[in-house]
Inverse folding.
């Protein structure tokens, strides 16, 4: 009998690991999830809420098939050998993860199981192409996305897998799921989107039935519902990457125009970005805490605590920055264009270390993935792979005017500005203090001068470069 260990693949359909576990033995498979305290140390209230919802949905999926999801708490390297002994397990199968923390855990699990004579069978599942499979002529991974994208796009993609038959799943009875408080977490202040297999299928179906054809343009506008909202589902694995890609390919076949097809490709390119960062992290696990790109000298981060707190609270006096930070607090999610903008503001305007921003996003995002967030923050901080040049600093007023011209997004999340005209909102930085007080007395003045801080940031990075 085999044990299937769910981690970040909380689904039954298109699950390569589960199919592998079933194929290894004529006996039914026992599915299990382990609440590992070492992993939970890096979790957050909003992500635990999503995890529990996804697990509840997965448990229901198994119960519909006469099985159940075993749930255990403790170090995975202790729990899995114990379960293997209790159920006379021959092999434990799981889907690989590529962060340093995950690999360290998996090495400990492998050693413990093999000491007991239990086979270990990790399976590649979370992304299309395993780290090390798309490489330059020299080196183990690409550090420039455009080169990676060309090979990724041309590389064959596997088709989604059907779920195993009900009789291939063991008729076990699992313990109730623990509550968030039992795991040591409060209820989240944010209300994240639903993260279940059903919600994931609905999400991809709705997106690929129409919005994907407008994605190339609409994805940049935070007031428009123009993105897929699949990031949390891919993070928790409530849908498989193969199923998502197949849906985009079907959408491309239905496309009425070349522009529609190019828009589909624009979305597929974002899927490739996700894999690019996974490859980079797999070979550079230290980049969670260290700069990927070195400078001759240390970057002279200012790390002003008051400015950091204003940024976290959405009280910087830069409307689109504050809207993004408040959306994060309210929903556990933020529009991608705004993610780049708030990250640029933190690392350049405030000259605060990207690691502070990464840590806040890790705590607040329902869709936090180590590879994506480290990659994105190092890109914004001009320290990562294929990063934003240090001298290119987003102008928050110009970004707001360009991507939220009517200020609809800003007004949704910054109610103090609800009655203020769009032009005044986008000119907030340049208004006289008396005018700001007249228009929105409860909304703060800008905490810094963008022009001055831009020049200061460029000088700081040039100093770090030894110029």
């Amino acid at each position: 009998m085999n044990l299937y260990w769910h981690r970040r693949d909380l689904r039954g359909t298109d699950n390569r690991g589960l199919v592998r576990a079933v194929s290894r033995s004529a006996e039914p498979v026992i599915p299990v999830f382990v609440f590992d305290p070492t992993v939970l140390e890096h979790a957050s209230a909003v992500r635990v809420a999503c995890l529990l919802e996804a697990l509840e949905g997965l448990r229901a999926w198994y119960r519909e098939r006469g099985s159940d999801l075993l749930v255990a708490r403790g170090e995975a390297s202790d729990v899995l050998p114990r379960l293997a002994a209790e159920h006379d397990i021959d092999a434990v199968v799981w889907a690989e993860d590529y962060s340093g923390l995950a690999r360290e855990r998996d090495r400990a699990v492998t050693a413990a199981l093999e000491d007991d004579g239990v086979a270990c069978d990790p399976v590649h599942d979370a992304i299309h192409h395993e780290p090390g499979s798309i490489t330059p002529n020299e080196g183990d991974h690409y550090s420039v996305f455009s080169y990676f994208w060309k090979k990724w796009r041309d590389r064959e993609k596997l088709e989604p897998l059907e779920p195993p038959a009900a009789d291939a799943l063991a008729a076990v009875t699992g313990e109730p799921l623990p509550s968030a408080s039992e795991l040591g977490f409060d209820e989240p202040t944010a209300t994240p989107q639903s993260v279940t297999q059903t919600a994931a299928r609905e999400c991809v179906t709705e997106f690929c039935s129409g919005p994907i054809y407008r994605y190339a343009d609409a994805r940049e506008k935070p007031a428009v519902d123009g993105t897929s909202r699949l990031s949390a589902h891919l993070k928790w694995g409530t849908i498989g990457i193969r199923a998502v890609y197949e849906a985009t390919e079907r959408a491309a076949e239905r496309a009425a125009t070349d522009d529609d097809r190019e828009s589909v490709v624009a979305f597929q390119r974002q899927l490739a970005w996700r894999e690019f960062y996974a490859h980079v992290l797999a070979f550079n696990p230290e980049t969670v805490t260290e700069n990927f790109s070195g400078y001759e000298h240390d970057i002279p981060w200012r790390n002003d605590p008051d400015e950091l707190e204003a940024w976290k609270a959405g009280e910087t006096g830069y409307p689109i920055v504050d809207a993004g930070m408040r959306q994060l607090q309210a929903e556990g999610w933020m529009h991608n264009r705004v993610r780049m903008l708030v990250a640029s503001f933190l690392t350049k305007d405030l000259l605060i270390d990207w690691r502070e921003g990464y840590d806040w996003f890790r705590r607040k995002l329902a869709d936090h993935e180590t590879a994506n967030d480290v990659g994105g923050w190092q890109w914004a901080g001009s320290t990562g792979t294929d990063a934003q040049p240090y001298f290119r600093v987003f102008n928050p007023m110009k970004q707001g005017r360009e991507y939220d011209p009517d200020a609809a997004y800003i007004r949704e999340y910054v109610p103090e500005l609800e009655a203020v005209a769009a032009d005044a909102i986008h000119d907030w930085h340049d208004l006289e203090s008396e005018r700001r007080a007249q228009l929105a007395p409860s909304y703060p003045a800008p905490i810094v001068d963008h022009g001055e801080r831009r020049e200061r940031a460029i000088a700081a990075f040039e100093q770090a470069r030894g110029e």
